[in-house]
Amino acid sequence: MSQDTRQPSADPQNTQKNGGQPRPQRVPWHRRIGRKVQAIPLSTKLVTCIIVLLTIGTIGISFSIRTLVGNYLLQKTDTQLVNQAQMIFNSMDSLDSTTSEDGRSLVNTYYVEVRDSEYKRTGAGSVPMLREGVVSEPSLPSDGSIDGVTLGEPFTTQAVVHVTTSRVPDHAIMQAAQSPWRVVALPWSEKTKTGQVKDSGVVFIGLSLSDQIDTSNTLTRFCAMVGIAVVLIGAILGTIVVQSTLAPLKRIEKTAAKIAAGDLSQRVPDLPENTEVGSLSMSLNTMLTRIEESFHAQEETTEKMKRFVSDASHELRTPLAAIHGYAELYKMQRDMPGALERADESIEHIEASSARMTVLVEDLLSLARLDEGRGIDITQQVKLTSVVNDAADDLHALDPDRGITCGQVVLQAGSDMEHPSRLAFQPGTMPDITLTGDASRLRQVVTNIVGNIHRYTPADSPVEVSMGVLPASISPESLSRMPSNEQSLHHFIEAIEVGQSMQVGMNYAIVRFSDHGPGVPADARSKIFERFYTADPSRARQKGGTGLGMAIAQSVVKAHHGFICASGSDGTGLTLTVVLPVAPVEPRPLTQTSDERKVDKRGRRPKKQ
């Protein structure tokens, strides 16, 4: 049997009521409330929480104070009733003298009712009378009974009010008269001189709670006024504190809006890092800096890629156009007299253009391999001095009239801020330098540099070639990430000063080629390492070259964790500096041997035997 896989259809009644569309599912009430709460601004939520907490706190404190004071006054009243019992017992015979005929007293504040042994009322008693003829009595058990009353335990009972005059009493007097009473029932007995009990019974002693209630009400009103003032002041101060605390977040929000609009230069104002908002600001600024750098790097890479594609297309189009043109010319002139001589000339032009295109394609492939980290082996032992000497010999063979001077690279100390330290040429023999790298690629670097000197400088202008090894307090990884400009070269020279003084860091081989040709403008020196860059805007390349030699040299040097840059020579001309890591600096010994520490009385060390 097959299973029924049909989906249940929508309710036809709901579909008809909604014009053919199914009724939308209702959202639960708690989700609707949650969405409304989430839509409330954070500042409003915080101020509301402050007000609610202050209100609950003041109500709780006021209730606690009222309960504590009420219990204290009630306990004090009970103590007062018990303490007054003996005095009342002693003056029971004189109660009649302080009361009127009906037992009402204008001076006594205690209610006293005496009952005999059968709990029947006797004549003795005292009933306080208020002003304007208002009499308030506690509600006690009926005559002849004390049901519900425990002797010796105070209890609270309602008041029974009587008005003895026809005048309407004041509201305050009636309110005080209607206040409940606190009453205690105590046994009493009267003995004869011989010690026999003459009479006994129960006496009810009561005291109105009007004063206690009035005190509690006054205290409650005072707590309410203070509580309202505290809530209002707390709300005002809370609003100010919340607004000032959230002000940095508002600025962050505005900054984020500007950044979203495309202005990546915006930054969040700095705040103390020990606060949450300050830590957030620092993290956001760091993130924005990296995003801006990445964005500019992406823009620069995209622009370089566009320029590279345009230049590569142009460079490839030129020899292809020559090949196509001379092929068309040969086809047009092959039936004319002297076609064989003209064909040889066309073939020579075609061969030259194809050779140039082959070199260009090989350089492009070489750059692509270097960009991918392929096509280079930096694990070989390279005698750098031999590579540089061979390049100098090649330059001399190309330009026999050019004066080539070899020497060493030294650090010339600066005199002041306007004349800082710099690398200088010192005539002499180049030192023997051996390092780990790719011999063929390093030979390609110096060959490209020599080729540029041969192509772009006069054949009789002198050239200085120098080498040297200097320590610098900078890692090869940091050195390879530095841009190829003169500012980076100055930074490297500062690292050399620190490395020489502290004997720390890495030893670097420095190779310099200084010519005295027309030179390159200062703002264009860092661009000579760009692909297809040329100072000739016509792109005629009358002096040959593909425009990729220095780009290849930079890629090779960076693959060796080195640095290359172009700077101005003394006077006119251009200096190309190549820096390659050799080996870490050996630390300076901290202690001397025991023999070196021994000196004679004249300050001389003893001679070794």
From TrEMBL:
It is found in: Cell membrane. GO terms for molecular function: protein histidine kinase activity. GO terms for biological process: phosphorelay signal transduction system. Residues 1-29, 585-609 are annotated as: Disordered. Keywords: Kinase, Membrane, Phosphoprotein, Transferase, Transmembrane, Transmembrane helix, Two-component regulatory system. Its main location: membrane. SMART domains: HAMP, HATPase_c, HisKA. Its EC number is 2.7.13.3. It catalyses: ATP + protein L-histidine = ADP + protein N-phospho-L-histidine. This is histidine kinase. It comes from Bifidobacterium pseudocatenulatum. The gene is tcrY.
